[in-house]
Amino acid sequence: MEQNPRRRIERKITLARLGMAFEAAWSALLWPLVIAAVAVAAIVSGLIPRLPEWPRYGLLLALALAFGWSFRSLATTRWPSREAAMRRLERQSSLSHRPVSTYEDGLAPEAASEAGRALWEAHKFRILEKLKNLRAGTPRSTWRDLDPNALRVPALLLLAASLFLGTGSIRGNLADTVRLAPQAAAIPVTVDAWLKPPAYTGKPPLMLTSPAMTERLKAGGEILVPENSGLSVQVNGATQPMLRFFAMTGKNEAGAELTDVQSKVKVDKGQLKAEAQVPRPSVIKVFDGATELASWPVAVIPDAPPRINFRNEPKSEALGNLTIDWHASDDYGVASVTSEIGLSDNQEDGMGFATDGVFLFEAPEFPVALKRAAPKKEDGASSANLSAHPWAGLMVEMTLEAKDAAGRTGKSETKTFKLPERLFVHPLAKALVEQRKQLVLDPENAAPVKRLIDALLIYPDGLVPESGVHVSMASISSRLGNVESHDDIKLAIDLLWQTALAVEDGDLAGARAELEALRKELQRALAEGAPPERIKELMKKMREAMDKYMRQLAEESLRASNRDRINSSNVRQAAKSLRRTCRR
User: Fold this and answer.
1) How many angstroms separate the CA atoms of 173 and 43, rounded?
2) Among 498, 458, 502, 450, which residue's Cα sits nearest to residue 477?
3) If phi over 0 gives left and psi between -120 and 50 gives alpha, with beta otherwise, what is residue 510?
């Protein structure tokens, strides 16, 4: 016989009571679960959150009352009794005459004889044989009986559909369901984007979200824009808007994400505003969380640097003017042309310089002006008088540089030539310019120059034509005798030039300078597109300056011829004296 049959029977009775309790609770939860499924589906689907305020509150109250009422069965549920559990065991085990409860019966004291106990033990043994296969049975649902119309099935399907197909997020719909303020109007998700080529290209912006662009992209086309075009994107109504860039692979497909594209992004309450530059071919994508809202494959037209070259060799003109012919071009327009001049290593008298004097002076500036603003191609000719510069007469190297609006530059080949110098005819002017050259090449040795200027000041009357020139030469001599720095040398060099011009041209130098200044101003006004009134005013002033220059030229020619006749003998005598002074 089994060692402890009572413990096994008690365990079966406990399992039967648990099964009966679960069946009762499961039956009582049918309608609470059905009502809860309907309520959750109405919230998650967005139905209740979109109702007006009072209908929403009324529906929530009705659902809450129905949910509370449905718990009345669960409130009356009790723990199954021991006797009921025994009856369940007997039914599940198909036992008749209640053997489970009979096993717990005892022998009456009146029958406690030897024969009675033997009979009772045989009876107990027969009952235990029946209880060997005692089964508590698995819990069984009674929902089919409680819900004959199967309302639970559409409720469950409605819940599943709302979870997968509902609009908005679950958290957002729940917050909108219990809100006290009026519901804000739903904002549809919209994307606006456009590409703005740099202003210097002259190309119009491209609307990326236009119907024409959408059809073009559907046909497999790509967007072609100039380099460094600006991208502007605006997204409204999104929950997690993002702008991302990807490398473009074959067939306009997105490759690895580009992390080095700098963009300014501002996100505020589902609205995104972003600006960036497109430096290279890329696929631009806009996301709302993990959902792709838009995609644009953008190819870039590289911005080539400008090109410039000399059309002819630089040439010298009258009075030391330098003229160069050049050709410049750029795909979007040349913004400016500049020149760079430097001393050449190869001079007429050999390599390099004996002293460093010429390096005390900055390189001359040769202005180059465009005829019109931002031309794509232009053949130009520029002229300037650089004969006053200390480097005049030396071999120099010139390079032209063109720049476009994007800041890219292109350089021409380097031309080596002799920087034009002015030819002086007047003997005194020639002597002063020669001493100026000596001072430029060897500024540390100013004493010989001072002695020669002093000698010129004491020679016969008529050699120094005017008192102003005499004072200027005396000032130069005094400065060279009291040199303290290179600035004194530079000032003496400048004064020597001004004095030589005054001797050679007289009043003609001022008239020529005025005419040259007006010419440059008129050229600049034409290049910058000045109004007609300004051009007319400058033309009038230039005609007046030209008349003045012609009068001065005629007067100077007359004075020069008279001076040559009167002072020819004095000049020859002064030249002989100067040679003797130089030999000493």
Assistant:
1) 6
2) 450
3) alpha
DSSP conformational letter for 414: -
H or E stretch covering 86: helix 82-92
User: With 60 as the cut, is the pLDDT of residue 183 above it?
Assistant: no
**CA-to-CA dists, residue 121 to 8, 90, 117, angstroms:** 19, 21, 6
| Chain segment 377-428, per-residue pLDDT in tens | 999 888 888 888 999 888 999 999 999 988 889 999 999 999 998 888 778 8
**Number of CB atoms found within 10 A of residue 310's CB:** 17
* DSSP letter assigned to residue 442: -
Cβ proximity of 190 and 237 under 8 Å = yes
Strand 291-301 with 223-226, pairing: parallel
CA atoms within 13 A on the CB side of 492: 31
User: 267 is written with which tokens?
Assistant: 């996100």
Q: With 0.90 as the threshold, say if the pTM is over it.
A: no
DSSP characters over 191-220: EEEEEE--GGG-PPPEETTSHHHHHHHHTT
- Report the C-alpha gap between 421 and 321 in whole angstroms: 8
Can you give the length of the chain in residues?
A: 584
Give burial (CB, 10 Å; 0-12/13-18/19+) of 47.
Answer: middle
- Amino acid type, 281: P
CATH architecture of 307-418: Sandwich (2.60)
Report the CATH architecture of 190-301: Sandwich (2.60)
Provide the greatest CA pair distance for the chain. 186
Q: Are 347 and 394 in contact (CB under 8 A)?
A: yes
pLDDT at residue 582, as a whole number: 41
Q: 540: which 2 tokens?
A: 């009038």
What is the H or E stretch that residue 553 is in? helix 532-583
DSSP state of 96: -
Ranges of CATH 2.60.40 domains, the chain: 190-301, 307-418
* Cα Rg of the chain (Å, integer): 55
Instruction: Identify whether the C-beta of residue 310 lies closer than 8 Å to the C-beta of residue 412.
Output: yes
| CA–CA dist 198, 204 (Å, integer) | 9
State the CB neighbour count (10 A cutoff) for residue 320: 19
State both tokens at 392.
Answer: 């005049």
User: Does residue 89 surpass a pLDDT of 80?
Assistant: no
Place of tokens 């309520």: 39
* Residue 442, phi then psi, degrees to nearest 5: -140, 75
